[in-house]
Amino acid sequence: MSQRGKKYQEAAKLIDPELEYTLEEACDLVEKTSTASFDESVDLDLRLGVDPRHADQMVRGSVTLPHGTGKEVRVLALVSEAKQEEAEEAGADHVGLDEYIEKIEDGWTDVDVVIATPDVMGQIGKLGRILGPRGLMPNPKSGTVTNDVADAIDEAKSGKIDFRVDDYGILHASIGRISFDPRELRENAMEFFKTVMRLRPASAKGLYIRSAFMSSTMGPSIPLSRSSIMSA
Fold first, then answer.
1. Pfam families, from UniProt (predicted)?
2. Binning pLDDT at 50, 70 and 90, where does residue 8 land?
3. Is residue 210 within 8 Å of residue 47, measured between CB atoms?
4. Looking at the DSSP assignment, which residues form a beta bridge with residue 47?
């Protein structure tokens, strides 16, 4: 296993491994521990007290971050001809149906969000094996299968993120960029935590949020205190 670089080691010294930081402290500290020359994303990782192997303990949802993600979101609208003008006017980067189904079958997935109308789901169901593993398959629960195409595109462009707990009970989300003001990061994080708390499965016993960490893309992890999360 390769040794961490010098910049990372210097940044890690700013974090006391014996402490848990408040959300406010972490949002200030994450910028100081950023080690890359590019505008890194700021990520949250939560370990939840759920067993995702049981359907009634699956945690998945979406949230619109008040200050967006800082990332340009590329949207594909898979819609019938009657909805294509609406999708184009709403700002979708790619609009169509048959030609994009063919492109995706050939391996093209150069988008961040795919939105579809219910009437075309029968045609795009076969794309699940390609889009599913990439988290791109349209789903009514995340609002990406809808007749309100313009609203869905607007939400995706303005900072809506989808999240889903992995097989190990870990929930990962990007909530902004290092260039964000610490207040913006904090407010984005609070909105994310509130949404996760609302989604607590009734069958989940004991501690729901076991641990939480904030980090930049290339920086060390900052442990968050559970009390600051619970008060979000």
1. Ribosomal_L1
2. confident
3. yes
4. 170, 211
